[in-house]
Amino acid sequence: MAGPTTAERQQKKSGPPRPQRVRRPGLARARKLIVLLVLLVLVVAGGVWVLYGSPWLRLERVRASGTGVLTPQQVTDAADAPVDAPLISVDTDAIEARLRSKLPRIDSVDVTRSWPHGISLEVTERKPVLLIEKGGKFIEVDAKGVRFATVERAPKGIPLLELALDRESGAASLRRFGTDRLLREAVGVAGDLPRAVARETRNVKVRSYDSISLELSGGRTVEWGSGEKGRTKASTLVALMKATPKARNFDVSVPTAPASSAS
C-alpha cells in the first residue's frame, strides 16, 4: 500500500483548514457612524460649555463711544449690562431699548459683542435744530420733531421758536392743523437751513401755516412762506445772499421769484 502523500502529511501537521471570516461592511459603517456621533456630541457639549459655563467668555467690560453732550459713564450706567454673565447670553436688543428709554437724547445706538469679554455701545445723539422756551428753560427739538431734552441754557447756534400767530390766518391755521403740526413745519424749516444760515438764525417765527419767517443776526429777516419746497428755498436763499450781500430783507416764499431789499 502506498503511504500518505506529501499534501496529506502537511495537512496533518497544520491541522484542519480555518474558516474564513465573513466581512460585514454594514456593521463597520455603523460602528464608524456611532463613533462620529459620539465625537459630535462631545464637540457640541464642549462648545456649549465654553460659551455658557466656562469663565473664559464672560462679560467683563462695557464701553461707550460717539457721545457728545452725554458722557460715556452715563451711557454705560443706563445700559445696565449684566457683568459676569456669559457674553453669548447678553440681550443686546434689551440694552438698546433701555438706552432709548432712559436717555431720549440718543437717536440710535449700535450694541455689539466684543469677544471675548466686552460689549461696545456706538451712540449717535440727537442734534437740536430748534428750541422752545418754557418756564425759563429750553426744550431741544431735533429734525424729526422729537422733543428730547430740557436744558437750563440755550445752546449756541440753535434758533428759538416763536409762535406769533396772526389773528385771522394764524387762528385759522391753528384750528385746521393744531399746534403740533405748526411746530413740525417750523422744525422742517430749521432742518432745511444751510449750516451757514442756521448759525446766524436767531428766531423761527410762525405767524400761520403759510407764513414762516426767520430773524437772522444783524437785524436781517427772511420771509420763508410755508415749509414746502424747503431745500429749493434754502439753495435760493444762499444764492440771493451772495448776490446781494448788503441786503437786510430776503423773500424766498416763492423760490422761482426771490427778492431782497436793503430796508
Describe the protein.
The chain is an alpha/beta fold and 263 residues long. It folds into 2 domains: 61-125, membrane protein fhac (Ubiquitin-like (UB roll), Roll); 128-261, Rossmann fold (3-Layer(aba) Sandwich), CATH 3.40.50. It contains 7 helices and 12 strands. Strand 4 and strand 5 (137-142) form a beta hairpin. The longest helix has 29 residues, at 25-53. The chain is elongated, with a radius of gyration of 39 Å. The termini are far apart. The mean pLDDT is 87.
Average pLDDT number: 87
CATH topology assignment of the largest domain: Rossmann fold
How would you write the strand order of the largest sheet? 7-8-9-10-11-12
Order of secondary-structure elements: HHEHHEEEEEEHHEEEHEE
Instruction: Please state the structural category.
Output: alpha/beta
* Distance from first to last alpha carbon: 152 Å
CATH second-level architecture of the largest domain: 3-Layer(aba) Sandwich
Number of beta-strand segments: 12
Characterize the largest beta sheet: strand count, sense, and whether it forms a barrel. Answer: 6 strands, mixed
Radius of gyration equals: 39 Å
SS strand fraction: 25-35%
As residue ranges, the low-confidence spans are: none
Shape, per Cα inertia axes: elongated
| Helix coverage percent | 25-40%
Number of domains: 2
Count of individual helical segments: 7
**CATH class identity of the largest domain:** Alpha Beta
